[in-house]
Every structure is written in C-alpha cells, then in structure tokens.
TrEMBL record:
Alphabetical list of SUPFAM superfamilies matching this protein: NAD(P)-binding Rossmann-fold domains, Winged helix' DNA-binding domain
One Gene Ontology molecular-function label: DNA binding
Natural source organism: Glutamicibacter ectropisis
PANTHER family recorded: REDOX-SENSING TRANSCRIPTIONAL REPRESSOR REX, REDOX-SENSING TRANSCRIPTIONAL REPRESSOR REX 1
Subcellular compartments: Cytoplasm
Protein name: Redox-sensing transcriptional repressor Rex
Subunit structure: Homodimer.
Length: 211
C-alpha cells in the first residue's frame, strides 16, 4: 500500500469528496469530458480553494489551464472512497424507515446492494419489501453469512440498537449506519455513522428562528 493510500483523510474532506463525485457524474451526464476547479466547485457548492485543497490529498489530477478529466477524476474519487468494492447491505428494522431505505435507488447506483431486511415483529416476517422479504432478526447470523453482508443499517428503536451493534460486531460486520436516536458503544475496529433526524430538525428550527 502506498503512502497516499495509507493516509487517513480528514472527515470533512471525505464528506466533500462525495459531493465532488456527485457533481462529476452530473457533468459527465451533460456530455462534458473536462472541467475546471471553478466549475466543479460551483456544481458541488464549495469554494474553489477548498476543492483544490481537498483534491490535493488525492495526488495531482488536474492540469493548470486545462482542468480535470471528468471520468478520470470521478473514478479516482470512487476508488478512494472504496466504491469499487462490492458492498452488501442488510437493513435491520422493517418499519416505515427501513422500508423507505430499502427502496432508495441511490444505494444501488452508488454500489451499495441491499441484500436483506430483517425485523423482530412476527407479523412482518415474510412480508415483501421490493424484491426482498422480511426475515427474522433471530436469523441475523445466517443472513450475514449467506449474503456476505459487510454493511448494516439500523432502522430500529434506540433500546434495540445496542444489542444489534454487539451482535454485528460478533459477526465481523464492521460498518454500521445507525438511525437509532441514541449514542451507541462500538468495539475497536467497527465504524459507526449516526444519523439523528430529530437533532437535524432541531438545528434547522434554531437557524430559522435566528434568521
């Protein structure tokens, strides 16, 4: 592994790389083969100097006066983000949120394949959710092994989330996206991202009042 590949990128840079990738894909869809840092920054909604600094982490992929090759830069960002790998997702929780997430087209288009949806409610077991059927959470180990799950999404109440994180850790699932409305303890080696919708709404309410 090279020094560049081994480098850990700042979290803010990682978040912006996803914006650049989305912008590059949009530019490619418009038929553009090259773009400048100014155009790409505008499409991504960031300052051009920040964009150039972020891309400097990836090495030299632009040419002064010429700009960036859209497809080449998009592919490099995809490799950096690990999107060239096969990501197989299990959604834990088949309520309204879990069902909505399972049908989100953005997962598949970005290389994340939802392979299973599970729930604890006996009334939901066997129910169709898109091309899937709800499976019992008691079969989590079987599902993880069968589908080679490497990412789990928690769409469950807060009280159930910690036990599921512990179970996923035992099953060597190291990447978890949690919508559970509470902090969770994770073991060393597990990466957990938390999306707290109520917190985001509260921040919007504060900003609206201040504005």
């Amino acid at each position: 592994m090279s020094e560049l590949e081994a480098r850990v990128l700042p979290e803010a840079t990682l978040a912006r790389l996803t914006q650049y990738l989305r912008a590059l894909n949009a530019l490619e869809a418009q038929g553009l083969e090259r773009t400048s840092s100014g155009v790409l920054a505008k499409e991504a909604g960031v300052n051009p100097s920040i964009l150039r600094k972020d891309l400097s982490w990836l090495g030299s992929y632009g040419t002064r006066g010429v700009g960036y090759v859209v497809r080449e830069l998009a592919e490099h960002i995809s490799r950096t983000l690990g999107l060239n790998q096969d990501w197989k997702v299990a959604i834990l929780g088949a309520g309204n949120l879990g069902r909505a997430l399972s049908g989100y087209a953005g997962f598949t288009s970005r290389g994340f394949n939802v392979k299973a949806i599970l729930d604890v409610d006996p009334a939901l077991i066997g129910e169709p959710v898109g091309a899937l059927r709800v499976e019992p959470i008691s079969e989590l180990a079987t599902v993880v092994a069968r589908e080679e799950i490497n990412i789990a999404v928690l769409a469950v109440p807060g009280d159930a989330a910690q036990d599921l994180v512990d179970s996923l850790a035992d099953l060597s699932v190291r990447s978890v996206l949690s919508f559970a409305p509470k902090p969770l303890k994770v073991p060393t080696g597990m990466n957990l991202r938390r999306v707290d919708l109520s917190t985001e709404l509260q921040i919007l309410a504060y900003l609206a009042v201040q504005g």
